[in-house]
Amino acid sequence: MNKTLVFITTGLLSVNNLFAAEAGMPQLDPTYWISQVFWLAIIFSSIYFLVAKMFIPKIKGNLDTRENKIRKDIEEANLLKEEADKKLKIYNASIIEAKANAKKIISDSRKKLNEDLSIKKKQIESEIQKEIENAEKEIQRFKINSTPKMISISEEIVSNVIKDIFGEDLNKSSIKATVTEINKGYKN
Question: Given a cut of 70, is residue 10 above it in pLDDT?
Answer without folding.
Answer: no
